[in-house]
Specification:
One of its GO terms (molecular function) is transferase activity. The protein has 10 helices and 12 strands.
């Protein structure tokens, strides 16, 4: 732990105080990444890095059990981790009973009844390390002023792309996209695509999306004045119940990005067993598309270029279709679409308000007075 000790001494020398970070002794071997953090990030280890795990379940108790056991087998460094379990109102009694009797020793656990799905993922023992490392590195480190458009961190190392409106679902390999570019083949990358199979979402943009989603749903149930779409995206054909369809609209408008892992062999921090549910069938062929090898040994650092996360500006950026682009290009595309679909002009400022109302301006003059 020599690198970690040196980092803590640096904090002490600058502030005349020592930030004490208590770590269970059995977990110290998994803390090598701590030495990659800036002083600013280290000072936030105790103050800000609060991660809440949201589990969503309905009527697959065996899938839920697999997920919960994998969560229970993961490393949390002694953190106080809150675990809300969101149970669909139509959940079967076995699922409800399992949730009520499940024991979680890493922090508070609560049960909520909501109308949602998804419980067929499984996590690597090291998923929390990836989440904590990336948050501290980018949200609280020296790059913290550059990440305003970063809306989350994926735990899933995807190998499919579903956005080509002509070809539909097709294979995707980030290493192949990065080959023969200035980026290492195994570099983590920023993508517009939202991951729903294990991901961390940051609150500012998630709140903006919540407001945007409510407005879209109300409009669809009423006058249907909002004519939202994403150019050349297969997501336009997704059903109205897909929250990702609406999130993708907001992401495209704003040029928002999610950080993805890119370990060799599609090694991932989550895997999707693609069991029969609302959005997927039960065909074996489909399962093979989504099932990824979980990281079973801690190779978080050694699997990265030069054994550490790159600076935020040095990360490759990909659009919805998996093409390398600049962030400026994504922002420009979003503003162009904004100017076409909303009567409120897009802001030319880089300052973010996380307020979707400028996207939702419509001409009400066509409505009759009694509407």
């Amino acid at each position: 732990m020599r690198g970690v000790d040196a980092a803590l001494v640096a904090v002490s020398q600058k502030n005349n105080t020592i930030t004490k970070i208590a770590i269970p002794i059995e977990h110290t071997e998994h803390m090598k990444w701590l030495s990659d953090l800036s002083i600013e990030a280290l000072k936030s280890v105790l103050e800000h890095s609060n991660i809440q795990i949201q589990v969503i379940t309905q009527d697959r108790p065996q899938s839920l059990s697999r997920l919960m056991q994998s969560l229970n087998s993961s490393i949390y460094f002694g953190d106080n981790v809150h675990l809300p379990i969101n149970i669909d109102r139509s959940a079967d009694p076995v699922t409800v009973k399992y949730c009520q009797t499940f024991e979680w020793s890493f922090g508070p656990m609560s049960i909520r009844y909501r109308i949602q799905q998804e419980d067929d993922i499984e996590v690597s023992p090291f998923y929390y390390i990836w989440a904590k490392y990336t948050i501290l590195k980018y949200k609280y480190g020296i790059d913290r002023n550059l990440v305003g458009r970063l809306y989350g961190v994926s735990l899933y190392n995807t190998r499919l792309n579903e956005f080509n409106i002509t070809t539909g679902r097709r294979p995707f390999n980030a290493a192949e996209v990065l080959q023969d570019t200035k980026y290492p083949n195994n570099s983590p990358y920023l993508s517009q695509i939202p991951c729903s199979w294990g991901a961390l979402f940051f609150p500012e943009i998630w709140r903006e999306f919540h407001e945007y989603l409510n407005a879209r749903i109300q409009d669809l149930a009423g006058h249907k004045l909002l004519k939202m779409y994403v150019p050349k995206s297969g997501s336009n054909k997704w059903g109205g119940k897909s929250w990702k369809r609406y999130f993708i609209e907001l992401i495209y408008f704003r040029g928002y990005l999610m950080l993805y892992p890119n370990y060799e062999g599609s090694t991932s921090f989550t895997s999707n067993h693609a069991e029969k549910g609302v959005h997927l069938g039960s065909k074996k062929k489909e399962k093979g598309l989504w099932l990824l090898p979980l990281m079973e040994e801690d190779i978080i650092l050694e699997g990265l270029p030069d054994d550490h996360l790159s600076g935020f500006k040095d990360l490759p950026i990909m659009d919805l279709w998996g093409n390398l682009v600049s962030q400026e290009e994504l922002i420009s595309r979003g503003r162009l679409l904004h100017s076409k679909l909303s009567i409120c002009p897009p802001s030319e400022s880089d300052e973010l308000t996380f307020d979707p109302r400028d996207l939702l301006c419509v001409d009400n003059s066509t409505l009759s007075n009694d509407e």
